[in-house]
Amino acid sequence: FLDWLRPAQSRSHLGRFIQSIIDGGAWDIVSRKLDQNVSLLQSSPLAALVPVALVCAIYLLARPRSWASRMLQRSYDACPTLRPGLIALLVTMAIGFAVNDSGVAIPANGAVLGVPLLIALSLAVLEGEPSAGAVVEPADWPAPRRRRGTASPGEAGLASRPR
């Protein structure tokens, strides 16, 4: 709306869309975006998996104590902001899928970033668990292992400083 208040030549696509709602041409834009998203979904068998993956992600987030997400529950317990963050990521990806011309690319890119980070976090929580069901604070996670013969950044600074 604020973008629409700017002069016509300075508006972004969002401001122009609001103007098209006022002018009565919004349905043309919505139908064009819908046609593009449907054609992208039909262009590749892998692209058709994006809506399936979104539904699975919604199920996992909506039912965190279900059999399918027991391992994820441990990560939720260890990191209380993880579940709200994943919900925000999922909502953002779904909106991007719905309103962008290249809709399939939005959740696909989000998954490319989000899934490996979620796996790494879940593994770190599982690795650091002293016993089943215990809450692990990030400060209790194991320190990264160094290769033999290498110094930590602090030790390297001390060794190179003249005495």
Any descriptors?
mainly alpha, 163 residues
Question: Can you describe what's shown?
Answer:
With 163 residues, this protein is mainly α. Helix content is 63%, strand content 0%. The protein is built from 7 helices and no strands. Helix 3 runs antiparallel to helix 5 and helix 4 packs across helix 6 (105-128). The protein starts with 12 loop residues before the first helix and ends with a helix.
Strand content: under 5%
State the secondary-structure class.
mainly alpha
Order of helices and strands: HHHHHHH
Shape by Cα distribution: elongated
Total strands:
0
Please mark out the parts with pLDDT under 50 across 5 or more consecutive residues, or reply none: 157-161
List the helices and strands and how they pair.
Blueprint: H1 13-23, H2 26-43, H3 49-62, H4 70-78, H5 82-99, H6 105-128, H7 153-160
Helix pairs in contact: 3-5, 4-6, 5-6
Concise synopsis of the structure shown:
With 163 residues, the protein is an all-alpha fold.
